[in-house]
């Protein structure tokens, strides 16, 4: 083996600093038209070296004499820390629990000693704290769920187009999702669905998952960040994954609830007895028919006698003339009024 002074100095430096060389193989890292050699080395501590894998010299053009060195660092992302959001505290539950605790609270005689005062303060503080903890349970941030679903939807969209022999690159700023997809063990249903969706398109195309730094002026990534902010600020309902409900669905629910309350009010109300004889049940179709009537048509049909037999009211006759209700009695009475 050929040695020189610089090599001896490097070996001495590695022994003094307790570093190790991560280079693998004999692939040259410095290539010119006249020579090829390995002059680029990657150093790491022994603890960090255990986390590094896949060290290799890339074959992609670097547009320089030095070739690109690639490797992977296998780092487990930190577990999310549970937290409480005071703004999402259910005040009704808090007041109910606190009222019950204070009603059962029997304070000690505060005039006897300082210990009694301290005991009362601790009891009151415990009641306030426990009421708050029950009204505001801990939650865990799960932004990665949204990123995982985004990758799944992208893969499903590609599969729906049935493309073949295409280089597909999907970028994401969620390192935890990309690492979960790379692991041999899958413990999440969302990750499994995403993995299956990617496998369905990987058999016909070359698929690459690439991590991208958040807020890096990437048009698609910045748009996704903006939508994620809206989703985080939107109150969601239902089981996981927690995704914002479309505004159209919320309007549909509100419209249905409004119609339900309106129908209940109409049935239980004791007023408008004459109108109820003609319109026993509120109907959107009937309401649209009324709103589409012109003034001339209403004026022509509003000419009925003030006194009608058999308790028939003018409203029923008007509705019959307008072809909005069907009643044989109304037909007879209304024919009398026009004769």
From TrEMBL:
Gene3D superfamilies noted in UniProt? Endonuclease/exonuclease/phosphatase (3.60.10.10), Ribonuclease H-like superfamily/Ribonuclease H (3.30.420.10)
- The segment(s) forming the RNase H type-1 domain are 106-233
Q: Please, which domain of life does this record's source organism belong to?
A: Eukaryota
Which Pfam families does the record match to this protein? Exo_endo_phos_2, RNase_H
The identity of this protein, by name, is: RNase H type-1 domain-containing protein
Enumerate the PROSITE patterns for this protein: RNASE_H_1 (PS50879)
